[in-house]
Amino acid sequence: MAQWLASVIDPYYQQVLMLVGIYIIAALGLNLITGVCGQLTFGHAAFLSIGAYTAAILTRDFHMPFLASLILGGLMAALFGVLLGIPVLKLTGDYLGIATLGFGEIVRVAFTNMKITGGAIGLAAIPRASNLINVTVFVILAVVAMVLLENSRFGRALRAIREDEIAAGAMGINTMWYKIQAFGIGCFLAGISGGFYAHLLQYLNPNDFGFLKSFEILNFVVLGGLGSIPGTIVGTTVLTLAPEFLRFVQEYRMMIYGLLLVLMMIFRPNGLLGGVNFRRLLRRRKQKAAAISG
């Protein structure tokens, strides 16, 4: 299958598409935490790195199957997410953001000084197990899971917390418990994304998971529209592919990239698809079609 893909799609384009898919998985997790639940976090890259290093060490040093390593990497990230969330999710707004930012830097420094992670030199010789097929499958599974989750009682409770946490608590919603669950699920997806990332690039360095990576993932969600799954997918795709499309103006591509973000915030402050209700649009189309046919 891999040989067939190589003959159909250029390996470079395959790698770019895989990066888009990997970032979509991570961004969907952050969208659940920040977009749906309304909890601002600047440390998402830390959970990406936890999943990446866990999966990479398990496959490289302990010769575990890739799928098992991937799931364990996600579970390890979720565990740290829950352990962090219990004390930190009592905070709100900027204070929560600063606390998660601090955690992200703690994780980065810890990985830089640990022997098992390769220290500042990084972790190399990771077997390449990520391919376009398994990344695409996990992207589809993540999207379906998020759609089902957001349209469930759990998702409605998270939206209630986002709109007014005090009112949600007064209505009998255990806000702390729901926030911790959302944080754990979002971190699990970040860990899965990190596992794919490690087995695609085959090399990990702690500096690749600094606060800039967290802000990059947050940009994906904000550009697409907070709380919007289609928006998260579109925002991630646009911002991941933009630097590639702008390679012909390599000296100015980051400036153009920044300009695009500024223009978006001016003309579409809610994001590309923020506030767009696709169910309502489909319902209106069906009603119009029924009226025309009737």
From TrEMBL:
Membrane-spanning parts: 12-34, 40-59, 66-89, 95-111, 132-149, 180-205, 217-242, 254-278
Annotated Gene Ontology cellular component terms: plasma membrane
Keyword list, A-Z: Cell membrane, Membrane, Transmembrane, Transmembrane helix
Membrane topology: Multi-pass membrane protein
CDD domains referenced in this protein's UniProt entry, alphabetically: TM_PBP1_LivM_like (cd06581)
Location of the protein in the cell: Cell membrane
Top-level taxon: Bacteria
GO molecular function per UniProt: branched-chain amino acid transmembrane transporter activity
Principal location: membrane
Protein name: Amino acid/amide ABC transporter membrane protein 2, HAAT family (TC 3.A.1.4.-)
Native source organism of the sequence: Desulfofundulus australicus DSM 11792
